[in-house]
Structures are given as C-alpha cells and as structure tokens.
Batch of 3 targets.
Target 1
Amino acid sequence: MIRIPFNRPFATGDELDYIRAAIAAPKFSGDGSSTAQCHALLEQSLGVQKALLTTSCTHALEMSALLLDIGPGDEVIVPSFTFPSAANAFVLRGARPVFVDIRADTLNIDESQIERRITARTKAIFLVHYAGVGCEMDTITSVAQRHGIAVVEDNAHGLYGRYRGRYLGTLGQLATLSFHETKNFTCGEGGALLINDATFNQRAEILREKGTDRSRFFRGEVDKYTWVDVGSSYLPSDLLAAFLRAQLEHRDQIQSMRHQIWEVYARELASWAEANSVRLPIVTAECEQSYHMFYVLMPSFESRQALISHLAGFGILAVFHYLPLHLSPMGLRFGGRQSDCLVTEDLADRLLRLPFFTGMSSSEQSQVIEAVGGFRC
Ligand SMILES: *Cc1c(COP(=O)(O)O)cnc(C)c1O
C-alpha cells in the first residue's frame, strides 16, 4: 500500500471561491476574466510581453511548431532526455528530431554538442530546463543566432527559476509552461505559451482560436470574425483558469514550501549520498532553481531498482523518469540508434525521483529520509 505518494496535488483554498465567481459571472468557456487574470499574473511576474493560457504544455509546444512554420524536411534539435511532447510537437508537422546528449551535471542539453548537429535544414532547438535548473542559455542563444534558428524553452519544470537573474521562459523566442497536477502550479491539466518575440502575438491568438480572428473581434478590432489561418482549439475553460488564478496568486507560499522541502532533502541526505556514491542534484552558479523535483543519481541501474523496491517496502513511491527518446520506438524510426547520447543512456538508468510535492508534511518527509538512509548500495 502506498502511504507516501510521489505527488499529491495541492490546493491553496481559494480555488473554489474563484470557480464560484466564474459560475456566477456566468463564464464557462475560455478567455473570460479569470483567463485574463492569469495572463496578467504571468506577464507581470515574469516580465513577459504576452502569455496565453493553453489546454496543456503539449499544446503550447504544438503552437510553437506552427508559429515557427516547421514542416516536412525540417530538422529540430531536441535533447534525448525530455518528455515526448517536445518532439511530437514538430514531428506532427512532418519534421525530424535530431537528438542531442545531455550534460552530466544538470541533465540539460549539452550546449557544446549542438552546433555540430546543425544543418541547412535545422529550424529550431526545443530544449527543457530539467528540474527547473536553466540550460546554458548564453551559449545556446549565440549558436542559435549565428545559424538563424529559433529557441523554444519547454519550461514545464522551471516556472520562476532563473538563469543569470533572468526568468526561465523569457530567454527563447517562445516558451511553454505546464499546469498539470504534477507541476509546481496546477489546474489539473493546462499550460501556457510565453511569447518573447511580439511578431508572433497576432498569429498565436489565431492558432489558439481555431484559425479565426475571434480574439481581435472580442477586442472590437474587427467587426466580424472568420477563418484566416490554420489553427485548433488551444484555449482552456475559464473555470480552469479560475482554479489556476488561485495557484498563481499564491506563488510565494507555494515556492517557499517547495524550497523548504528541497533544502531538507539536500541537507539530510548529504552524508548518506556521500557514503553510498550517490549524487544529489547540482544547481550551477548561474541558476536559481524552481524547486520542481528532488532526484538522486544512484551508482548503477541495479542499485536504483533496489532502492525503488526498498522504498516500496515502506509504502513510499519513488519513480524514475524519462526513457531516452532516441531509443524509444519512435526515436528509432528517426535513426535514434546513431544519436550518440551516452550520458542520457547512463543517467536515465540511474536517476530516481523522491516524493516531492507542495504540502508534503515534515513527518512524511522524515519517513522518506529515514527509509532512504537505511539503504546501502
Ligand atoms: C509535464 C511535461 C510536459 C507535458 O505537459 P502537459 O501539460 O501534460 O502537456 C512537457 N514537457 C515537460 C518537460 C514536462 O515535464
């Protein structure tokens, strides 16, 4: 029986009041006042010129591929160690993923491996800030600029993390957020597109509204709305935005609770890690992390599996993470076998994520720490 889950979604207490207000308004469909509130909260807190809520991070990634006009014959650089949505977004448009290995310290895309994978067909780099620790963006941005290719930040983990003082999600032309229940801020299922290049603003609104200029119509800028481009239905219900508003307004509380839990793990597991050749997360000097997860890198695949079973014996659910994309059935169809992503293969086998969620009690955390501390490699 699971006594301590890997994740337990957290509600701040204000969600129902805001949903009640949306019901009373009454406004159930998308782009009502709750959605506008969330846009303003994200834009103001991050200093982003435009944020658009979406139905998921996956859909914000798909919008990014559409906005960048990625199509058949194009190549897109993606780390092998990421979620399939990042690759699917442009594979759906007929483009090919080019898998790049990760750095052993942050598990982020290895910026030194990017340039040699760029060809005349490369359109973009879709990167992820793993665990909310920023990629080496100065290097990546300059490589991308040199070759005239776009950078999309999959920032599902990293909302309110920073790189050299700048918020993650403000560094590429486009960035995406996830509000899935496993993320720092949630409305169950949801996401956002952050637009750092204003030339995308108008088309992003159209793609999100089924290829119509309905957003301009609602603002009174055109006197009717019609089909003007491709698109889909990427906007969430205002009821979900009402839920999310409560979460975003509690940003400081949520982040400080997560910060505290993270620091306790790091402190209390340090000597166990050292004695057992286990590596704890590394946050580089350029970065302030977002406190999204706490992982350990075990010395071997076997010790990782053994620790999972050991914790399961105490009713504690700890989980591994991404399977290397280049070796997945889809990745192999794109020649993934030749990708040369040895760090990804090694670390994916050894990584374990411990229970980590907003609202985790200190007693729950002590039980996890005690159970981990009782494990010998
Ligand atoms: C969770 C996650 C996604 C998918 O988010 P959804 O909102 O569920 O679509 C994409 N990328 C990364 C890195 C994630 O962690």
Note: The mean pLDDT is 97.
Target 2
Amino acid sequence: MAYVKKAACPLNCWDSCGLMVTIENDRVIKVEGDPDHPITKGKICGRGRMLEKRTNSKLRLLHPMKKINGTFKEISWEQALDEIADRLKEIKECYGTTAVLHSHDYANNGILKNLDQRFFNCYGGVTELYGSLCWGSGIEAQKWDFGNALSHEPEDIFNSKNIVVWGRNVARTNMHLYEKLLEAKKRGAKLFVIDPIYHATAKIADQFISIKPGMDGILAAGIMKEMLRLGLEDRTFIEQYTYGFQDLLKLLHSISLETVSEMTEVPLEVITQLAGVYADKPVSTYMGLGLQRYKNGGNTIRLIDALVAVSGNIGVPGGGANYANLQVGQSFAYDQLTLPERRQNHRLFSIMKQAEEVLSARDPEIKMIMVTCGNPITQVPDSRMVKKAFKSVETLVVMDQYMTDTAKLADYILPVTTAFEEEDFYFSSMYHHYVNYGPKLVSAPGEAKPDLWIWTQLANRLGFGKDFDFSRDEWLKMTLKPLEQMGLTLEKLKQKHTFELPVSKVPWQDRKFQTPTGKFEFTSILGQQKGKTGLLTLAVPDESKWSNPSLAEQYPYNLLTIHPMRSNHSQNYHLLNGHVKLKVEVAENIAQNLGLQNGDYVRVWNDRGEVKGYVSVLGTLHPDTINIDEGIWEEFGGPVNNLTSSRESDNGLGSTLYDCLVNLEKVN
Ligand SMILES: Nc1nc2c(c(=O)[nH]1)N[C@H]1C(S)=C(S)[C@@H](COP(=O)(O)OP(=O)(O)OC[C@H]3O[C@@H](n4cnc5c(=O)[nH]c(N)nc54)[C@H](O)[C@@H]3O)O[C@H]1N2
Ligand SMILES: Nc1nc2c(c(=O)[nH]1)N[C@H]1C(S)=C(S)[C@@H](COP(=O)(O)OP(=O)(O)OC[C@H]3O[C@@H](n4cnc5c(=O)[nH]c(N)nc54)[C@H](O)[C@@H]3O)O[C@H]1N2
Ligand code: SF4
Ligand SMILES: [Mo]
C-alpha cells in the first residue's frame, strides 16, 4: 500500500521546499510539494520531482570500489574503510594531517552534512577550502557594508512599491520568489529586471534593462549620480547612519553619465528613469549571484548596496538589499557540531584555485584528496587544471551517489545515500527562514551508506570514535541547542515538519549595523583591516575591452555559464530523458556576423580550453554575449569550466566564473 510522508528538499537552492513523498514497498514513487509549507505551499520544481529518479536510478553507486590497474573493482566496506583509515594514519605520521585536502561544495543542505568538518578537525586538521564559487564576493561585500548579509522575509515584498530583480534568474532558480513577484504585481507593484538575458522573469517585468555583463556596479553608480543631481537621495539616512559618503561622492564625480551609459550599454534616459524608480519608495532589490561572479564582483554588490542606502531603502518594510540570508544558518550551533578547537594543524586553499594550490603545495605536498558533496571536475573553474591536480595525488577518495566526472578519477569511491534514505533537517541561508525536517523514508539501495556512517566508521578506526558516538537525535538536538529555550526543539520540528527561525524579518530596522563603525559603510573599515583600501571603485571585469583590449580583440564574446533549468548543477544531466546536447546560446548579432543558424555545430574556445556544441540563436541575449548552461558532463560535451578562469574576485573570496571572454567558430 502506498502512503505519503512529509519531507524536505535537500538541494542547494534558494527555496528550501517542503515535500510530500509517496512511498510504496520501501520505494519512493513520487515527489510532490507540501501544501502546508508556509512559504513553498505545495509547489516544487522539476529538480525536486527528479529526486525520485535520483533515488531510484539504476545508475546509483551501490558498492565501495577501488581502482586497480585502471579499472574499478567492488570491494567490501571493511576493506575500503580499513585501507582509507590506514592511509590517513600513514599520512598523519609521515607528512602531517594537512597533506590531506578536503574538497567539497554544498550539494546537500542537511545540517549533519557539516559533520565532515568534525571528522577532519578531530583527525588533526586538514587543508580546507576558503571562499565560495557561488556567492563569495557578494557575501564579503555585504559584510563590509552592513556587517552581515541579510534578507527581508518573503512576505515583505508586498510592502514594496517598486521591485528590482538585479541579475537573479528568478523563474528558473527561485520559483517561490517568482510567485511572489506575480502576486506583488497584481497588488500594484512595478517590476524592473536588470540582466544581460531577457529571461522568463524579464517577460513579466514592467521594464527590462539589458546590460553588458559585469557592468552593474557602474550602472548603480550612474543611478546614484542621477539621484544626487535631482536631489532624490535620502539625506537623513546618509547623514545619520552611514560612513564614508564623501568618498562615494568623489567617486561619482570621477565618471560622467555618458561614460556610464557607454560602458553599461544602458541608454542615458533609462539611467535617469531608474533614479526615479529608486526614489519612489519603498523599493526592494533582489540581487542574484550571477551578478558577482566577476573580478569586480564584490565592488558590484557594494555599489548596489550603496544605491539602496543612498535612496533610503535600508531597514524599511518593502525595501532591502536582498542578496543572501545568513541569519538562517547563523541560528544553529556549528561549533558544537564541528569542534574547531580540536584541530591542531590547518591550512587553507582558495576554493577557486584549489587545483593550482594542489599542484604547487609543499610542506607538505597534498597526498590525498577526499571529495564530499561536490563534483569539482565539472564545477570548479579551469577544469583541465582541476583534472591535472586531482590526477596528481596519490589517493583520491570520492563519496558520491553517482559515477560523476570526479568519481571517475577516484582511487576509492564510497557510495552514499540520498536525502530520503537518512534523517536530517534542511535549510537554506539564501531566501526564507524556515527549517524543514527530513525523515528517513526508505532503505538505501545496495550498500550505500550515509556520509555520517562513513565518518563514524573512519573515526573508530582512527581512535576518535567517541567523538562520533551519538544517535541522530542527539546530533540534531546538539545543533538546535541555541533555539531550545524558545521552544524550537527537535520534537516540535518532527511534529510540525517545519518551523520559523527567530530571525529579523526586516533587517536593519534599528539602524544598528554590524560594522566597526556601527553604520552602513560606503568606505569599509573591515576592508581596510583586511589590507584593502575599503573604498568603492569603478572597477570593470578582468576580461573586458577596458582592462585587456588585446584579449578582447582575440576573444570578442562574453561567455555566461548560468545555472541549468532542469538540473541542480551537474546533478541531473545523466538522468534526463532523451539525448543531452551541449547548447551554445548566442546573441543575434553574433549569429548575424558569423552567419550562424540554429543547430550549427560550433567550437567555443579561449586560451584555457574549448567545448563544442550546437547553436541556438537567442534574440534575448545582450549583444556579443554567449551562454552555455553550467554543469554538463564530459560525455555530453562539457564541462564548460574548460573555459572559465580560476581567478578570484576583488575581495578574494568569490569566483570569476562569468568574467570570461571566448571566441566561436563553426566546425563540421
Ligand atoms: N534550476 C536551477 N536552480 C538553481 C540552481 C541550479 O543549478 N538550477 N542552483 C542553485 C544555486 S547553487 C544558486 S547559487 C542559485 C543561483 O541563482 P541565480 O543567481 O538566479 O542564477 P545564476 O545562474 O547563478 O545567475 C544567473 C543570472 O545572472 C545573470 N547575470 C549574469 N551576469 C550578469 C551581470 O553581469 N549582470 C546582471 N545584471 N546579471 C547577470 C544571468 O543572466 C542570469 O539571469 O540558483 C539555485 N537554483
Ligand atoms: N561555470 C560555472 N560553474 C559553476 C557555477 C556556474 O554558475 N557556472 N555555479 C557555481 C555554484 S553557484 C555552485 S553552488 C557550485 C556547485 O558545485 P557542486 O556542489 O560541486 O555541484 P553539483 O553538481 O551539485 O555536485 C554535487 C555532487 O555532490 C553529490 N551529492 C549530493 N548529495 C550528496 C550527499 O549527501 N553526500 C555526498 N557525499 N555527495 C552528495 C552529487 O551527486 C553531485 O555529484 O558550482 C559552481 N560552478
Ligand atoms: S530544487 Fe529548489 S525549488 Fe526545486 S524543489 Fe528543491 S528547494 Fe524547491
Ligand atoms: Mo550556488
């Protein structure tokens, strides 16, 4: 008999949906939305529904495997764990624990996925990654400006008169915000979309502003310039609650509106009009993450924050510089869970440059890489370098559910469970502030095991088993400790399936910012403390005609590699019905110049590498722009990260994945 259970979507996504999962004979047969979830209200996306396939697919990894003479052989868990533990012991004795690199991303939003940190800390401290491919520049930028990166609660959008969606592909990546946009429009709000792509969200906008990739900071500067010229700024807010305004004024004086228009490829009158929009308060700004994956990414977010501040849209209902919502994750007891005090040694590599760092590491060299919740060969920039680095180490261990491009390179593959096969709770620090409970619903296939089981087994073998001697309930309670006194307990979560975290719904309403001055900082003291000037600048992307004219001549097109519609990154391509082809979306002017038609086979290349795929002419792309969705596997023509650069953004913590010039030609 089939029955239905409530669960949670584990995917790295804005929305963190509540699910209803139908189960029959210990098997997931359908995944739908939970109508009782206060935010996601029964609607989920195709990726959520695909979790059924990700759980049941015949392609799942079912047994531990070891590569012997170039081919994978099934081995027992006993052998796999003994050999990996012996290797960890040997490395610790001979080279020190930092000869191990933990390479990971955040493929699963379960709180207990953070126990990998506990394992590596108790082992003695390994080489860890810092920064983020995803949102690193913008998070750091908002820490400089506000002291934290906080968003308004989803419902607050109904207090906005104007809504600006700035570089967020809402209809594709953040579907519940899309629904809110439709509703807000019905209630009379006006919607503006600023993006190089006229995407599905642009279609419902009152106005779409097409922009040259990487130029949004310059546009924000232009809008501020116009606000000040027209006397539309919020003087009280600027005078009482901000620091460094004179520096900003100097910056705005250094560029003319004509230059702003020329560089951004946004018409002059539109810039003036946007100044009027920002003055017609309250205005909520929803920034995306694509926006900041450029060399100047931190500065871009900072200039947009500055615009939100100058226009007086901070700390007011219906306003906000909504980028991320870190207060969600900040609600839990991480240190109790991860035990940072246990690590004796520690080394940090940039997540962007992990490959170069592996190849050049000395004292100690990297002897072993352990990969969890990530697929670095496909997702980390400059894939060819990543491949070289991951092949260069003596022992590569990959824990995954599928034979990904990264797993293919492994010496040991450890098969792990999917979210429906283990208990955890889930949340996202991106949008709303509800936690969702995810019970164990079905047995794992074959010999697949939870990551936590693997850490526990290895800990036992390495002599710190007592640090892992807790039940699921005990682990989960440990993380909820800070919330207990407010009645937010594990029991309640299990009973209600979701609850609201006690976070600020309209951040900064008290005008007390978490910066060194306690004010909103146009000039950042934190930035200065980190050895930078802390000043806002009019920086441009690294790969552009302004910063590198000869490169721009050789490679005239901007390459975006945005998130795919039907997959979370690389996770679904191998499970999609029909033949997967690499689609090269090109702007109309490129197609005209090169005589390209839909379906033409083309090569896209730069100095770092190339990919080949099929043209789709997109009249909706900004001129001279190409898009290839990210995540595509090698067997389907990827990875697109063959083309992208591992450079870090201005503040050192973000990627420059979209700061990428390429050329393109037809091939046979
Ligand atoms: N379907 C789907 N949804 C997802 C994911 C997925 O893989 N698939 N991934 C999840 C994750 S991990 C993340 S980080 C989020 C990301 O969510 P988003 O930020 O919405 O998506 P991205 O693909 O990162 O960014 C792409 C958007 O930024 C725009 N963009 C690129 N460059 C610029 C620029 O210079 N200026 C402006 N104004 N816009 C620019 C692109 O045209 C596109 O609209 O999505 C989450 N949701
Ligand atoms: N060119 C380009 N590159 C990008 C981006 C882009 O926009 N353009 N986006 C960047 C962004 S925003 C992000 S967030 C990253 C994402 O980078 P990744 O997180 O590396 O991408 P995924 O494809 O989601 O890979 C996650 C892997 O973890 C596995 N996995 C899932 N759940 C579990 C689990 O519970 N345990 C274990 N051990 N494994 C699990 C999945 O099977 C999958 O193979 O990619 C970045 N890379
Ligand atoms: S991927 Fe995102 S939108 Fe889709 S079901 Fe999961 S949380 Fe919801
Ligand atoms: Mo991401």
Note: The pocket of molybdenum atom (ligand 4) is lined by residues 12, 134 (CB under 6 Å).
Target 3
Amino acid sequence: MDQTRTQQPFQTGESFAREMDAADPLAMYRERFHIPTRADGSEVVYFAGNSLGLQPKSVRPIVEQELEDWGRLAVDGHFHGKTPWFSYHQIFRESGARLVGALPGEVVMMNSLTVNLHLMMVTFYRPTPERHKIVIENSAFPSDTYAVKSQLGSHGYDPEAGLIVVKPREGEHTLRTEDIEQLLDDRGSEIALVMLAGVNFLTGQAFDMQRITAAARKKGCAVGWDLAHAVGNVPLSLHDWDADFAVWCSYKYLNAGPGAVAGCFVHERHGKNPDLPRFAGWWGNDPETRFRMHLEPEFIPRAGADGWQISNPPILALAPVKASIDIFDEVGMPALRAKSENLTAYLEFLLGQQPGDFFQIITPREPAARGCQLSILVHDAPKKRFAALEEQGVICDFREPNVIRVAPVPLYNTFSDVHRFAVAIGAT
Ligand SMILES: *Cc1c(COP(=O)(O)O)cnc(C)c1O
C-alpha cells in the first residue's frame, strides 16, 4: 500500500494542478457532492470540510425514502419500512466499524459527540481519591474541556486541580509523543483517564494514538479518543490499538450534515461486560425483551457498543449518515489517505513558494503527524487577509487570534482548488 508515499515532485504552474486532477483516480467523487457557488455562479474553493462537510447528492433521496415510509406506513415502518426503523442503527455495524478500524459490534451511531463523551465517561471515568486526574491536550476543543471539567466536578473533585493539560515545549506549537509518554510515566498512577483528540482541531496535529494508548494503558489509565477531526481523515485502528472508547461527530469529514448523529466506539473487551456501570435506556436493552415494556423492569444491556444506546434512533437524522458512510465504504480509507497526503503536501509546497514571511504553518510537516488540514499562523493582518480570502471565493476558517485553518478534503477537493487557494492567499 505504498501508494501513500508516491509524492510528486510538484510544480508551481496552474497546468500542473490540472494534470494532477486529470490523473486523480478519485476525481469523479467530486460529482457526488453539492459544491456551493458564488453570486456569479462559479464554484467556491471549499476548504472548510473540517467544520462542515459538503452535502452528498445521495442524501436527499435517502431522507425522502424515510419520509415516504413514515407517510405510507406510519407505525408499521418500524418493521416494514425499506430499512426497518427498529434495527436502523444496525446498518452501520460493518461499515461504521470499518471506518475506524473496529470489529463489527464495537461501533454504534447515536446522539451527538459531547453527549457520547459524557456517556463514555460515566462508564470509563471511575475516579478514586488516589487516581482521579484527567489528561487532555493543550488547546483542546472547548466542548471537551467543559465535559471533562464537569465530570470532575460531578464526582466532587476540583475541576482545575483535577485536569492535567499537556502543553507544547516553549517556542513550539505541537506536542511531542515522548513528552506525553514521560508525563504518563511520571504521573500515571494519579491519572484515571487520558482523553485526547486524535487530531487537534486547532493545529491539525495527529497524535500517535497507538503509542499513547499503549503508554497510558501500561499505567492503568483508561483511554478515550475524540476523533471529531480524525474520522474520515486519517487511518484508524481502534480495536488493535486497544483504546477503551472513542467518540466522533459525523458532520465534519463524514459529510452527514449539520448536527448529524455521532459515532461511538467501545472496545470488545468492555462490550462483553454487562456489569459495567452506565446510564441506561430502552434501546441499550436486549431487543428480545425491549418491547415487553413494563413487564421487564430489569435492564439487560445488549452486547457491544449498542448496549450504550439510550433512546430509539432519530431516523431522519440517521439516513444522511448512511448516505455518507456508504461513500467512505466505497472509496476506502487507503485510497482517500493516499490522495489526501498528496493534496496537502501540494498545498504545503505552494505555500512555501509564497514571497515574504507573513505566515508560518504550525501543523507538523510529517504526513503521519497530520491529516488533510494545515493551520496557518498569520503574523501580519490575519483578519484582513482572511476577509480577502473570502472575497475571492475561498471558504476556510479563522480561529482567534491569528490562525487560518485550511482543509483540502480528498473526497471532493481538487489540486486546482489548492492552486486557486495559493493564488488567493498571495493576493491578500
Ligand atoms: C467538532 C467538535 C466537537 C463538537 O461537539 P458536538 O457535541 O458535536 O457539538 C467536540 N469536540 C471536538 C474535538 C470537535 O472537533
């Protein structure tokens, strides 16, 4: 699979971008998405797929199918719809697992990301006075910080003192794996949970999840990964890495729409354990007895990640997730990743050709330590330059005080998009 290493010797001209597009084996997938346009009808350069992925054209018919089944069948749709609602979540059993390197049964699509994070912490954050600390990374996504702090507080621990934030070294922007390992080595016995992002939202750094998981588990810490910026972006092997749990949202690289139903991974070794504490609801119960309602007051969790479900699934919201995951299943992460490494390296190359030094890239240079996103720290007039990009039809995003995040997404972005971006930033 060393297609991932076939990096081209890049050239600066626009014709080179067109040649790359012509030779791109995934080029036809762009056609499967709605690309936003400007007032004059021209397509924007959409580099904000790390925030909200574009709409697959297959979403509308799949949602309409559910509307039709509801209209035509009403309550009978639970068992006689085209995709029966009773077992709707099970359609992701194989494809959802493939996406994150899990076994069938280790993944369930449910709720939203932060809700799943809380549900996972109910089970896997089991603090004691000697071991109650939670490790997160510097500039973690705010929702994650709020979630872990409120978990500390709800167990009666001081949210500030209970949190260990791993920081970059002086003068650096990203974390070093060896520093995280050192921290775990030194303080592992105080740490109940290591909860890091697979890819940091701000810097675009992809952590060495395998090494960090191993180091944390060696010290007896539980390990959970927030894969919001990792899923559909970088290759994942959650089962083999032996993480305890992981959570992710589906509206960024997975393109399942605003507020889409999120994902959750529970390792098989826990999925088999009905005695684990959890917040229960009827959909996590054994389906054999689920509809016996008042006759069965005892909660019997079903095996696997499914046993952490609480409510019956929102079908209209799950349908786009199916449309989206089907595309990933068809393309496969290896092919996507191969294009992604090339596309991002090309962006890095063109940025390196820019005259002057008004910015620096803070995302790691090694392909293994990043996904598709590059984070550009702008030293000079960052807001003005960001506005100038927008005026030129480039959609990316700005994080206070001075970071522009740019995500060329391999499913629908082109080498020509990257070229247009480079020209546009040069003109800011
Ligand atoms: C996008 C993102 C979230 C969003 O949380 P929701 O519960 O989906 O609103 C949380 N954490 C991280 C790391 C994110 O990137």
Note: Confidence is low (pLDDT under 50) at residues 1-6.
